[in-house]
Design brief:
The complex is a heterodimer of chains A (about 325) and B (about 475). Chain A is mostly helical and about 325 residues long. Chain A has one domain. Chain A contains 14 helices and two strands. Chain A has a two-stranded antiparallel ribbon with strand order 1-2. In chain A, about 60% of the residues are buried. The mean pLDDT of chain A is about 95. Chain B is mainly α and about 475 residues long. Among the domains of chain B are: about 120 residues, no CATH class; about 80 residues. Helix content of chain B is about 70%, strand content about 5%. Chain B has 17 helices and eight strands. Classes of the chains: A mainly alpha (about 325), B mainly alpha (about 475). At the A-B interface, helix 2, helix 3, helix 4, helix 5 and helix 6 of A face helix 3, helix 4 and helix 16 of B.
Chain lengths: ~325, ~475
């Protein structure tokens, strides 16, 4: 394996982690938004607080990791994507800012009316951020980001692939979050809440499935290179994703949310990895390959060291944090 | 003066995105640096309070640690998102810089990403670990946070230092070659510049938190809680404030060789004089200094460590390579003035306390001074950043790449700046409201501050009181 491919994989691992864990945090905004009035939604909103509170900042750092690995390892491709996709990326950024601030402010706001405002901000922007990040991914995957960065600032992300990718991203986030929240509520012994979340997650899962399958034809027409990869090299991953999604639905139906969570993660992770595999060897599809976009060799080697350090320094405490949140002491109110 | 500075801001042929991009970067960085300082310095203060609470069985200290942890939850959350804004802006506003030098300057950013990871993970464990972990292990969780803050500061500052003293690459035929990211990271002034900002963070946070408790004491709340809440951050700030002038002086050493235009602007040196005076205040109008107070020889002594060595004058530097002089000069001297004042104040406080057994906390005027010391430290940090950043202009990578070459060519960036100002103003107001309400509820005797929408809020005797406010 070449060193540039190794760095690209290290970058992509971060992207998958962000999609899965950051995505699940974003997706909880959907349930928060649809939880109903202050009294009816109180228990669900508390559950969401409890579920994502300890982890959302750590999960958010995957995005920073992806950005710095990208601009350090593949600077010209990064600059090109940033220049062309400034509008969706700024919109995603606004969502990210308002989500984080809204979440933190709501938790400590003194009155219900203030909590309502911050809550709406948190929940709404939780859906805005993944949508626009999805459109940016769709723009790259459909070959709309030229290597010189002079792509059209509107049509690059206002096109079938981008918009569908944005909607699929939001749906996947909501589906992931639903399985996570159902599992958390079940473990905490909040029976009625778990049942309510289970119903909603099943609905979201069904909608997600329809959306993904329904997008296949338009995306195939719109993004030829990507479609070739999806039906060729990446086909096993796409099949894995479909099976994982179906398994998650079945497990939810049979009231095994903890296992459903794993299936949902597999489903989402394989669709993201499938995207990466489908567009290999391109960094910006049809424009510049991973090898051509790579920065200085000494820097790439240093980045591999950083990735290895991340494995040693970051992953163990992250696992520790995740394990803590699943323990009995952390589950109780 | 106006003409001169305006000219250095906008030169003919600059891309449309340059000026708004610079203002955008300055605004978001200036906002974030305050929160970043809390991320760097606050964990150490929480650690001391928590440690004291556990080891000495000091309930007052433990309450402080618990409350500071909750405050840090709010501050770190908005710090995390405003830091993300900067990550995006590196690419969105400066594609020319990142596209050309991304692989030269990126390594410390990648390592900073790891520090941020560690900080965020242990923050989550620490914040939610109260009452859920063995107390001593819980206390230990602050240590990685504090260490990661230090490492992260070094990494980020090293990139800024690299922009001042570029290293780790060569330019051959217009192409960047021989990239050595480690040499870029450990560039000549990375260490001193890190030390300078690290201490500044402790000053900013220490004086700000101490100021909060000083205000409490001014309002008559003179209990052990306020005393300790004042003394822990004030002690940190005191140590930092006393060391800072030394570190600042060492960082400035050699500036005349590294960046003569910046030094000339700092010192308002229009011509090369031997020995150079220390020029306090004053403005440059039509090439002439007006209203300055000159102290002979001191300029050479401070800037060059010599009785005779001159500060190179602006007249030796082409106009197109000069920074906006007045802004740089005033920002620099504001920083120096406030830093000196704060250092003197803490020396006076501790000297009187140790040798005369007099406690200035009994004196209203000293508490008033402490109340404004936090905002003063903020102004000093902002001024320092303005001095070094504006003083580096027109270069983004000193002597190598002009800021105009780094900017993108977007037409609508003023709209972005306007939106950002609105959003950040909202965030500031929101944070102030939430933090003030937290302190008010603590004073009313509430401890846990449950979410107002939670099921707990409908418990008898709780929900109604909060609704009434």
């Amino acid at each position: 394996m070449t060193v540039e491919l190794a760095v690209a994989i290290a970058l992509f691992v971060g992207l998958v982690a962000y999609a899965v864990f950051g995505g699940a945090d974003f997706g909880s905004g959907f349930y928060d938004l649809t939880a109903g009035g202050a009294a009816r939604g109180a228990q669900l909103r508390t559950e969401i607080d409890h579920s994502i509170g300890p982890v959302w900042e750590a999960n958010h750092v995957w995005l920073i990791y992806v950005l710095v690995m990208w601009w350090t390892g593949f600077p010209t491709a990064f600059a090109a994507a940033m220049s062309t996709l400034i509008l969706p990326l700024l919109s995603a950024l606004l969502g990210i800012v308002l989500r984080g601030a809204g979440f933190a402010f709501r938790k400590y706001s003194p009155t219900l009316s203030q909590a309502r405002v911050y809550g709406a901000l948190f929940a709404g922007s939780s859906l805005i951020a993944p949508f626009f990040l999805g459109t940016a991914a769709g723009a790259i995957a459909s070959g709309r980001v030229p290597a010189d960065g002079q792509g059209d600032r509107w049509s690059s992300w206002l096109n079938p692939t981008s918009l569908l990718a944005g909607m699929i991203t939001v749906a996947c986030c909501a589906f992931l979050a639903g399985t996570f929240l159902t599992a958390d509520a079940t473990r905490a012994g909040h029976g009625p809440l778990a049942a309510q979340l289970r119903r909603r997650t099943l609905l979201v899962g069904a909608v997600t499935g329809v959306l993904v399958l329904g997008s296949l034809v338009p995306i195939t027409r719109d993004a030829r290179t990507l479609a070739q990869g999806l039906t060729g090299r990446a086909a096993p991953l796409i099949i894995t994703s479909i099976l994982g999604g179906m398994a998650a639905l079945v497990l939810l139906l049979t009231r095994r949310p903890a296992a459903a969570r794993v299936s949902a993660v597999i489903a989402v992770a394989s669709v993201v990895i499938g995207w990466g595999a489908a567009q290999y060897p391109w960094m910006l599809v049809d424009e510049i390959t991973i090898a051509d976009a790579a920065g200085a060799p000494a820097t790439l080697r240093a980045l591999l060291l950083v990735a290895a350090l991340a494995g040693v320094i970051v992953i163990p405490p992250l696992v520790y944090l995740f394990r803590l949140t699943q323990t009995e002491q952390w589950t109780r109110d | 003066m106006v003409v001169h500075d305006a000219l250095s801001f906008i030169a003919a042929g600059d891309p449309a995105g340059l000026l708004p991009a610079r203002q955008q970067m300055a605004f978001t960085l200036g906002w974030h640096i305050i929160l970043a300082s809390f991320g760097v310095a606050f964990p150490a203060m929480i650690l001391v309070a928590h440690w004291r609470g556990l080891m000495r069985n000091d309930a007052t200290a433990l309450v402080l640690a618990q409350r500071w942890a909750k405050v840090s939850a709010v501050l770190f959350a908005i710090g995390a998102v405003s830091g993300t804004v900067l990550s995006f802006e590196m690419g969105l506003l400066w594609p020319g810089l990142m596209g050309t030098f991304g692989d030269v300057l990126g390594l410390p950013f990648a390592l900073e990403g790891l520090s941020f990871f560690v900080e965020a993970i242990f923050l989550g464990i620490y914040l939610y670990g109260w009452g859920r972990m063995p107390p001593r292990r819980h206390l230990l969780m602050v240590v990685p946070m504090a260490v990661a803050g230090v490492v992260g500061t070094f990494c980020v500052i090293s990139v800024n230092a690299w922009m001042n003293t570029p290293a780790g690459f060569r330019i051959v035929g217009g192409e960047v070659t021989d990239v050595d990211p480690w040499a870029a990271m450990f560039n000549p002034i990375a260490g001193w510049q890190f030390a300078h900002m690290w201490l500044a963070a402790y000053m900013l946070v220490g004086f700000t938190i101490a100021g909060v408790y000083a205000v409490g004491m001014l309002r008559g709340r003179r209990d052990a809680h306020h005393r300790l809440g004042f003394l822990i951050p004030f002690s940190f700030a005191s140590v930092a404030a006393v060391i800072q002038p030394v570190v600042g002086h060492l960082l400035g050493g050699g500036l005349g060789d590294r960046q003569p235009a910046k030094l000339a602007a700092f010192e308002l040196a229009t011509t090369t004089e031997s020995p150079s005076p220390l020029r306090i205040g004053g403005v440059l109008v039509d090439g002439e200094v007006r209203g300055a107070l000159d102290i002979p020889v001191l300029g050479s002594l401070i800037a060059q460590n010599s009785f005779t060595a001159p500060v190179r004058g602006l007249d030796t530097i082409p106009l197109r390579d000069q920074p906006p002089v007045n802004i740089t000069h005033w920002a620099f001297q504001t920083m120096i003035g406030i830093g000196t004042l704060l250092a003197l104040a803490v020396v006076v406080y501790w000297a009187l306390r140790w040798w005369r057994r007099r406690d200035l906390l009994e004196h209203t005027w000293f508490l008033r001074f402490c109340a404004v010391s936090g905002p003063l430290a903020v102004v000093a940090v902002e001024s320092g950043w303005i001095a070094t950043e504006v003083g580096r202009q027109p270069w983004v990578v000193y002597g190598i790449m002009r800021t105009s070459e780094a900017a993108g060519d977007y037409p609508g960036l003023w709209w972005l700046l306007a939106t950002t100002v609105v959003v950040y103003t909202g965030l500031t107001v929101g944070a102030v409201f939430v933090l003030r309400s937290m302190s008010r509820r603590w004073r009313q005797g509430q401890q846990d501050l449950p979410s107002p929408y939670g099921p707990g809020s409908r418990l008898p005797g709780e929900g109604s009181g909060r609704e009434a406010q």
